[in-house]
Each structure stands twice: as C-alpha cells, then as structure tokens.
C-alpha cells in the first residue's frame, strides 16, 4: 500500500473524480513547480469509489473557480501546521474567457485565433456553458 504523508503548510485539492487530477495538475502548471507536489491517482474513497488528490507543499495563489470547470465536486483545503484552516468549495463562474475551447469547427474562434474564447453559464445544475459566438454547448466534466 502506498503511503503519502500529510503536509505541514500548503493546499490539498480533494474529491477530484478519478482521472481528472492529471488535467488539474497541468492546468495549474504544477509540472513546472519548484516545490513538493503529490498527484495521487485512483485513491480509494468510501464516498466516490476512486478519486484523485493533489497535495501542494506551498501556498500558491490560483483561481479556484477554474478547478470547478474541470470538476465541480472538488474541495480545496488550506493547510497550516498540518491542520485544515479553511475549506473552499469552488462554484462555477458566470463567464469564462480563454479556459474552455469551442469544439465547433465553424465557430469564428476556430478560424480567427486572436478572438477570445468566451462562454457564459446557462445551466448551473448541469454545468453547461454556451459559446458567445456560435451557441455551442459545453458541459463541465464531460467535454
């Protein structure tokens, strides 16, 4: 059995659906980090079956709403002296720019690379966003 110890000060991103941790890892730029980072994949979970966890031994500043775009069920725990001092449950933002990419090949953003990719939230419960230019629907965690 693999054992990952606790961190003294930093951030733990927990409750990531199995397989999505690597996507968050790269989106946060943790592959270029000069501090300790642990990506735990397919860890056993009583509530989720399997989950991913990211442990960051550093207090990095990042937009937690971006994490909700990858997995809306994620929890961010801030750790100080090996204790959780704050839990953050990110919510889906109303508007997203240059994070989601439109998959419609006829969308203006597919042809004109200088135009920003802009999506607006249309259904919070389903995690659905609509492209500002072509009305293509993007579903968080599925697309």
Question: Can you characterise this structure?
Answer:
The chain is mainly β. It folds into 2 domains: 10-88, Alpha-Beta Plaits, CATH 3.30.70; 95-139, Aspartate carbamoyltransferase regulatory subunit, C-terminal domain (SH3 type barrels). The chain is built from 3 helices and 9 strands. It has helices at residues 21-27, 64-70, 108-111, and strands at residues 10-17, 37-45, 49-56, 75-80, 83-88, 95-97, 118-123, 128-131, 137-139. The strands form 2 sheets. The chain has a 5-stranded antiparallel β-sheet with strand order 2-3-1-4-5, covered by helices on one side. A 4-stranded antiparallel β-sheet has the order 6-7-8-9, with no helix packed on it. β7 (118-123) and β8 form a beta hairpin. The chain is elongated, with a radius of gyration of 17 Å.
Q: What is the name of the CATH class of the largest domain?
A: Alpha Beta
- The CATH topology of the largest domain turns out to be Alpha-Beta Plaits
Taking Cα atoms only, what radius of gyration do you get, to the nearest Å? 17 Å
Beta-strand proportion = 35-45%
- Quickly give the CATH architecture of the largest domain: 2-Layer Sandwich
SSE class: mainly beta
The total tally of domains equals 2
Protein name: Aspartate carbamoyltransferase regulatory subunit
Domain Aspartate carbamoyltransferase regulatory subunit N-terminal: 2-89
Keywords: Metal-binding, Pyrimidine biosynthesis, Transferase, Zinc
InterPro entries: Asp_carbamoyltransf_reg_N (IPR020545), Asp_carbamoylTrfase_reg (IPR002801), Asp_carbamoyltrfase_reg_C (IPR020542), Asp_carbatrfase_reg_C_sf (IPR036792), Asp_carbatrfase_reg_N_sf (IPR036793)
